[in-house]
Write a structure and sequence with these properties.
By secondary structure, the protein is mostly helical. The protein has three domains: about 90 residues, no CATH class; about 200 residues, Alpha Horseshoe (Leucine-rich Repeat Variant); about 90 residues. Helices cover about 50% and strands about 5% of the residues. It has 16 helices and seven strands. The strands form three sheets. A three-stranded antiparallel β-sheet has the order 3-5-4, with no helix packed on it. A two-stranded antiparallel sheet has the order 1-2. It has a two-stranded parallel sheet with strand order 6-7. Helix 3 crosses helix 4, helix 3 packs parallel to helix 5 and helix 8 runs antiparallel to helix 9. The longest helix is centred in the N-terminal third of the chain and has 25 residues.
Length: about 450
């Protein structure tokens, strides 16, 4: 009997333990402070937007680490990197990557702010559509390509950088070499041999951002003086131009240093002397280097506005039509494409002193329609079949001509000789195995835009 009672007690205990386990597995947590292992409450239903014949999507955009398209009636949460896709006309957004060169930016539409959850804070840097811009026209993918009044895309303005993160791989010996070369530029009248050697060293080292920033801080005025002075040999001036261009290339801190040094005088101290030197110089290699330095300095804040104000486009037109150097023509064409026609690369300038978090897009007042005829005249006059052509510059001119046609439409009219030149050039390319598709594609693109579909 005692044995049976003992077994019964064990069975009751086992049933009691099973009940406890069962209850804990299916218990609903209370509103009190539960333990960290307690189940989470049921998620709040996501509000969806549905349109006939289209898959539903969340009302509030859900970002990832890659750009995803944003529907026009979706709400964009604060703190995201947002861009306009020129191809589709729609917006794309993603989570900000702090390691990107573009910096951090957010975009919040003014009429959508109230729909965000209470308590959300907005970043100090918010890009919003300009008061005078008709935003729906920007987002309308059906906009005619020859309508030139459409505003540029709203995009992020990086905060002005202050300092570079030090490069731990630069040794004391490296810095000594740099400082020794830079000290030559500080001399009032350095010997030609010393200057040549110093500039050769600096042109190589200025690719490193830290050296580029340091050079701008201590020697930018000296570099400008050497570049623009006919008293120096063309080879010395060329090395100085390369050094200046390398110091500013992909170096936002160095670009900001120039503006801090000269302020509103940057146009007169930097850009105008370079433009004048390009107009007056006759040395082929030096002109290429001058164009390289100029293409880097226009990326200083407000640089393109200053360039246009100095009639830089007119100056480049004079240089382009006067020179027989095809590589220089290619550099000028690429410059126009990158800085004035490629909407992904165009700098969105802001009014100075804005502290409210909004930034006003300033519309560029440039007009490049006249270049349409200039580029066509250049192409049809080339004799590539005689071995005198420069295929790299040809591709650059074709790409820029394509961009001009896309921007100006009917105002970019074909010259009568263009169609014949395109046909003969395509026939020549077929026989030249080395030319390949990289030349055929822009030829086809230009022919299609100017004369319709090709066979």
């Amino acid at each position: 009997m005692k044995k049976m009672q003992s077994l019964n007690r064990i069975a009751v205990l086992a049933i009691w333990i099973l009940c406890l386990l069962f209850n804990s597995a299916f218990a609903v947590p209370s509103n009190g402070d539960g333990g960290s292992d307690s189940p989470s409450p049921a998620p709040t239903p996501v509000e969806m937007i549905c349109h006939p014949g289209k898959e539903c999507y969340p009302k509030v955009f859900v970002p990832t680490t890659t750009f995803l398209p944003v529907e026009i009636d979706q709400v964009i949460p604060p703190g995201l990197h947002v861009r306009l896709n020129i191809g589709t006309g729609g917006r794309e957004a993603k989570i900000i990557d702090p390691t990107e060169d573009e910096g951090t930016a957010v975009y919040v539409e003014k009429d959508k702010k109230a729909e965000l959850q209470a308590g959300m804070e907005y970043s100090d840097l918010v890009v919003v559509p300009d008061q005078n811009i008709d935003q729906p026209s920007v987002l309308n993918p059906g906009l005619n390509s020859n309508e030139t009044d459409a505003p540029p895309p709203v995009q992020h303005i990086p905060p002005e950088p202050e300092n570079l993160k030090p490069n731990p791989h630069l040794t004391n010996s490296d810095w000594e070499t740099f400082n020794n070369a830079a000290s030559v530029l500080k001399e009032s009248a350095p010997q030609a041999a010393s200057l040549i050697e110093a500039l050769q060293t600096l042109s190589d080292m200025s690719h490193e951002p830290e050296y580029g920033v340091k050079l701008i801080e201590i020697s930018v005025q000296k570099l400008i003086n050497i570049i623009t002075s006919p008293e120096y040999a063309s080879s010395i001036r060329s090395s100085a131009a390369i050094t200046l261009g390398n110091s500013l290339q992909n170096n936002a801190v160095a670009l900001s240093r120039v503006k801090k040094l000269f302020g509103t005088a940057t146009k007169d101290v930097v850009l105008e002397p370079l433009l004048n030197a390009l107009l007056k110089n006759q040395d082929m290699i030096l002109n290429r280097r001058l164009m390289f330095a100029l293409s880097r300095t226009v990326r200083i804040h407000n640089g393109k506005q200053d360039f246009v104000a100095l009639n830089g486009l007119g100056a480049l037109e004079k240089v382009y039509t006067a020179t027989n150097d095809l590589p220089l023509r290619g550099k000028i064409a690429a410059f126009l494409q990158d800085e004035f026609l490629d909407m992904n690369m165009r700098e969105m300038e802001v009014k100075s002193g804005v502290k409210t978090g909004s930034q006003n897009v300033i519309k560029s007042m440039d007009d490049l329609s006249g270049w349409c005829e200039i580029f066509q005249g250049d192409l049809v006059g080339r004799k590539n079949g005689d071995g005198n052509g420069d295929l790299d510059s040809e591709v650059k001119v074709l790409a820029t001509l394509k961009a001009l046609k896309e921007k100006y439409g009917k105002d970019c009219k074909p010259k009568p000789e263009l169609k014949g030149w395109l046909g003969s050039e395509k026939e020549r390319v077929k026989k030249e195995e080395d030319d390949g598709e990289w030349i055929k594609v822009p030829l086809d693109d230009v022919e299609h835009l100017f004369f319709g579909a090709t066979a």
